[in-house]
Amino acid sequence: MRILVVSDVHANLAALKAVLADAQGEYDTIWSLGDIVGYGPYPNECIAMLSRQPHVAICGNHDYGVLGRISLSDFNSDARQANLWTRERLTDPSREYLESLPETAVVEGFTLAHGSPRSPIWEYLLYARSAQQSFDHFGTLVCLVGHTHVPVIFAQGPAAEVLAPQPGLSVQLDEGRYIINPGSVGQPRDGDPTAAYLLLDTTGRVFTHRRVAYDVDATQAEMRRLGFAPRLIARLDFGW
Ligand code: ZN
């Protein structure tokens, strides 16, 4: 099975469209690792676009925030403001869709979790130490996570290897255990403003990180029109 793995779309429709177009013909189904809403101006449209395709999706902290399942006091003020705007704008079908999402999933022998397998909604896996502790919390060889908006590969072992993915380079999985982050579609934070995603062939056990440029101006123009926080608009130019 050929999988398109996306995470942290964050209601950025132009970025999601660019990813789907770029990967067209190269996947059979989509796995979404959470935070389809929050920050961006098109929550309902992004949910609708994903819903039209065969896919498996899990919940992220912004999705939970919109549903009122977690307190927004842990969000910074820009994130909180965007989350409250999303809450008001969300249609009933979109809300039902978000409510239907599980916290984690195991599909085709891969574990999906938004933050980490230990604390799926909130924990950020940025460093080797926290990643190493996470390996005890899932039963498959590979866990796919999002949340940090930074593409990365953690390999289990005493060396606690942290690998920076090279976009476009296909990597063959061995029998080791890995935690892999595809990066963010809608709000990259690794200094590269292009949308990040992952292609995964579960049969051949090969994955490829990918990047694709999208119409940043179109997303920013709508955010400006809606009065979103300037910092949220500016960061899309730089990928931070
Ligand atoms: Zn996110």
Q: Could you explain how this protein is built, in words?
A:
This protein has 240 residues and is an alpha/beta fold. It contains 8 helices and 12 strands. Zinc ion is lined by residues 8, 10, 35, 60, 62, 147, 149.
Question: What's this entry about, in short?
Answer:
With 240 residues, the chain is α/β, with parallel strands linked by helices.
Largest sheet composition: 6 strands, mixed
Name the strands of the widest sheet in spatial order: 3-2-1-11-12-9
- The assigned structural class equals alpha/beta
Mean pLDDT: 96
Tally of individual helices: 8
Oligomeric organization of the protein chains: single chain
Q: Which shape, going by the Cα principal axes?
A: globular
The radius of gyration over CA amounts to: 17 Å
- State the helicity in percent bands: 25-40%
| H/E series | EHEHEHHHEEHEEEEEEEHH
Distance between the termini: 33 Å
Number of strands: 12
Ligands bound, unique: zinc ion
Regions with little confidence, pLDDT below 50 for 5+ residues: none
Give the DSSP E fraction (strand runs of 2 or more residues).
Answer: 15-25%
Q: Key terms for this structure?
A:
alpha/beta, 240 residues, 30% helix, binds zinc ion, six-stranded mixed sheet
Topology readout:
Layout: E1 2-6, H1 13-22, E2 29-32, H2 43-51, E3 55-57, H3 61-67, H4 77-89, H5 92-99, E4 104-107, E5 110-113, H6 128-134, E6 142-144, E7 152-155, E8 162-163, E9 170-172, E10 178-181, E11 195-201, E12 206-212, H7 216-225, H8 230-238
Parallel strand pairs: 1-2, 2-3, 5-6, 6-10
Antiparallel strand pairs: 1-11, 4-5, 7-8, 7-10, 9-12, 11-12
Bound molecules: zinc ion (ZN).
Zinc ion (ZN) is lined by residues 8, 10, 35, 60, 62, 147, 149.
